Amino acid sequence: MKKYYLLLLFLVSFVSNAQIKGTVSDEKGNPLPFVTIFQEDTYNGTTSNEQGNYEFNLNKKGKQSVVFQFLGFKTQKAVIQTDKLPYVLNIKMIEESFSLNEVIISKKNNPALAIIKSAIASRKRNTEKTNRFNADFYSRGIFKLKNAPKKILGQKIGDLDGALDSTGTGIISLSETFSKIAFEKPNNLKEVVTASKVSGSNNGYSYNTARSSFYDFYDNTIDFGIQMISPIANNAFNYYNYKLESTFNDENANMINKIKVTAKRDSEPVFEGYIYIVEDSWAIYAVDLDIKGYRIKEEFLDVMTLKQNFGYNNSNKIWAKNTQSLEITAGAFGIKFNGKYNYVYSNYEFVDAFAPKTFTNEITRIEINANKKDSLFWNTNRPIPLTMEESTDYIRKDSIYKVRNSEKYLDSIDAKENKFKLLKLLTGYTYKNSTEKHSFSYEGLLNLGSLSFNTVQGYNFDSGFRYTNWKNQESKGIYTSISTKLNYGFAEDRLRVTGQFIHRFNNQNYATLYMTGGSSVKQFNPNEPISKAINTISSLAFKNNFMKLYNLESAAIGYSQDIANGVNLNGKIEYQQRKPLFNNTDFSLFSKDDLYTSNNPLAPNDFTTAAFKKHHLTKINLLAKINFGNKYSSRPDGKFNIRNEKYPTLYLGYEKAVATNEKKYEFDHFNTRLMYDLTLGNKGILGMNLKAGKFLNADNIAFIDYKHFNGNQTHIGQTARYLNVFNLLPYYSNSTNDSYFEAHTEYNDKGYIMNKIPLLNKLKSTLILGAHALSTPNNKPYTEVTVGLDNLGFGKFKMLRVDYVRSYQNGFQGDGVVFGLKFLNILE
Question: Does the keyword section mention Signal (predicted)?
Fold first, then answer.
């Protein structure tokens, strides 16, 4: 009975109020998916779905011509009389009989080269015709998962809110969007989302906005994380081979050239497939191109297929994109992902200029009732009919959503999950009230993930408690968290306890109040240049204790919020009592005859003298973060910042110590930081991180308060980029209480150079060139230069990096190899 009910609802959804609808098939009756259909001499159209069904509204009655365009088939034009609506128009399309007009193709006489040269020469003229426009935009995205395991890293993944069946297969995401867009090349966009629908969430918002759908092959490069070379870029002949496969005529007797494009070098960021060029105007008629995952350094991606179709309007003589699709296939460990995104552009209005202030920093705005549109609206306006699978998913997931968000269901699940067993005293316990949206959790006494080793505490581990309330998070962004962490060190035989309170007031300006306090061990460098995991391995295996610690008793209160677009201000006042610590263990698994250095970073061989005396003070910290040219998206449930990658991010900080037990511990510290990524087209990216600061009245401050620089003596790198670390610098060798300047730059060729080197290009890696510099008044300048390879690994797992480093300070200091293990950062 349930099957019949679903079928009935599907049929109801298809029998909609569209003015014209039907099915497109080939001569054998097989449905043709994603056929482009439009009203002649207009930009009003749609595309058929996977089952060949289509529907759309005509913008005038009477005698009309409807065009059906599908690559590989003859373009068909149907003349209809639409006095009576709805009108059913079924079409059978005939395969194109291609010809090359007996052109003999050879290396010396390749007609494709002349066509591409003409397309490149006409590129500016053709793209200027669509420089500025208003349009209606529709998008639909579906993402499927196949063969998902029951558990990942020991954690059950469940059925993902009804998405997966017993085999781990199903639709995990389905959503639709209607928008009104204004666009001006190269990247001015104003989008108003008028309707949004998400399967399984009656208050959700789709992320399928126009901002993520612009792929313009008239540009030299197209951004897919890596700048892909357009087949008609200025330098395209350096990257592509071309072959004219056939020619045919469209409905207006324009001759269309079908050109196959292939890569000259397999590992370069290039497309493969077909580009269709209109004779004489040399405009793009269509593209059907593949993006291989390894070519954009996305190893888990198998392939993406991008298709675009352009329509012609006789009145304004403009070819404009009317449909686009992007299909994604990816996977690993036998799990397969498949995504399909369809876009329809219609009702173009090309303009010579936009009114002042049309484009602002607000890129996208979602209207208040966008996610409240009923089924009648969607069935009437949806330009691509739902497939049976999609209709079923909406119906089933919406039903599941209602059931699983009902108070009765939530209470029953909570009752099951909240059962307490004595074993949970060791493993941890969580109590959750899903109706009231709050939870309480206890981490247990066997929190092995927190287990680490250092010479002060020996083996130590964490436990703790947390209360969370998110009742108004979805609608207003309000969030509250109260937590406490317990840390016990066995060699020190000491328990330390810290607490934290966080309350976010909204997600419009992200106003947040936070308080912390308690007793903890801290590294002298608050940036924690060596992680617990690396220090544990370094100590137990090699008897190195690079982590230098002190005891902190503190109480702090802070507040942060966005005070303007792209400007965030954070202020904190904190009372601190500092006490020196000493080594309490000499234990190591290996190298047992060696000695650990002391816990004093100023005197590694002095085990009795502390780096500072016990004291207390109060710190005031102010930090401003400025994202220049910041863009944002407005939704009824919040404002979401979008950093403008054309501009840098600037930090301005001030730190002041007052109310100390001795006047010498008081100081002022001004600091600034500038971060910027300069994209060099398809030639890679240059990252920069510049820091500077100045202490005032700080001659006798505690060593804790010095400016410490992120060194590395382990030869292990954990981050994806080394823009905040000196790879061979001893951790506390250049610390200062005066002025300082440090610079980190790193160039990643994104394969631009490596792809051209024989044999090495088989690695599919990227070349990294780095330079690091540090200047302080009391030391000679310290510099490093690095050369390395990133994106190394096996198969789909490219999470390794190797760099050769040379360091200089008053002459050559040394060299070494740093092994980048990026997965360690993920595990932590």
Answer: yes
Domain harbouring 37, CATH code = 2.60.40.1120
Q: Which of 1-10, 269-278, 498-507, 509-518 has the lowest mean pLDDT?
A: 1-10
**Which pLDDT score, from 0 to 100, does residue 161 have?**
67
The Cα 390–Cα 393 span in angstroms is 5
Bond from prior residue into 186 cis (ω within 30 degrees of 0)? yes
E strand map for 70-119: 76-81, 87-88, 91-93
Instruction: Enter the tokens of residue 400.
Output: 């599941």
CA angle at 737 for the pair 733 and 742, rounded to the nearest 5°: 65
- Exposure string over 124-153, b if 16+ CB within 10 A, otherwise e: eebbebbebbbbbbbbbbbbbbeebeeeee
Tell me how far apart the alpha carbons of residues 337 and 169 are, in angstroms, rounded to a whole number.
Answer: 10
Give the Cα separation of 666 and 660 in Å (integer).
Answer: 7
Residues 6+ apart with CB under 8 A from 509: 561, 562, 563, 639
Kindly state the tokens that stand for 124. Answer: 């500016």
How many independent structural domains does the chain possess? Answer: 4
Q: How far apart are CA 459 and CA 492, in angstroms?
A: 9
- The pLDDT of residue 151 is 66
Distance between start and end Cα atoms, the chain:
50
Q: Structural domain of residue 510, as residue ranges?
A: 445-464+472-665
Mean pLDDT of all residues in 27-55: 89
CA 27, CA 8: separation in Å to the nearest integer?
29
d(CA 520, CA 518): 7
Which one of 634, 665, 696 terminates a domain? 665
pLDDT at 156: 65
pLDDT digits 0-9 by tens, 701-745:
999 999 999 999 999 998 999 999 999 999 999 999 999 999 999
In a shared domain, residues 365 and 497: no
Neighbours of 658 (CB within 10 A): 13
Please return the burial class of 367, using the count of CB atoms within 10 Å of its CB with bins 0-12, 13-18 and 19+: middle
What is the reported pLDDT for 15? 40
Tokens matching residue 26: 């080939």
| Cis amide leading into 526 (omega within 30) | no
Whether 118 and 180 map to the same domain: the answer is: yes
Q: Is residue 101 part of a domain?
A: no
544 and 571 in a single domain? The answer is: yes
